[in-house]
Amino acid sequence: MFKRAHKGTFHKLSPKHLNRYVHEFAVRHNIRKMDTLRQMAFIASCMSGQSLPYEKLIADNGLDSFARS
User: Fold this and answer.
1) Which secondary-structure segment (H or E) carries 20?
2) 31, 39 in Cβ contact below 8 A?
């Protein structure tokens, strides 16, 4: 599923954010047997109280993002 998403949705996976991609697809895999409404409710409940400020998203973590300057 992850390899298929790389070719279909995410054409370029940044090493800097690779753990985010992997976590997203692990959750998708783990909730695949739930119906759509339960999946949406589960994802919404996990997002409650979470935020990713832009400064944290672009912060240096020692890995190359391969972004163009």
Assistant:
1) helix 18-30
2) yes
Token pair for residue 15?
A: 């090493």
| 30 belongs to a structural domain | yes
pTM: 0.65
Q: Give 12's contacts (C-beta < 8 A, 6+ positions apart).
A: 66
Residue 36 lies in a domain: yes
pLDDT at residue 30 tops 80: yes
Overall number of domains in the chain:
1
In Å, the largest CA–CA distance within the chain is 42
Task: Please give the Cα distance from 67 to 40 (Å, whole number).
Answer: 31
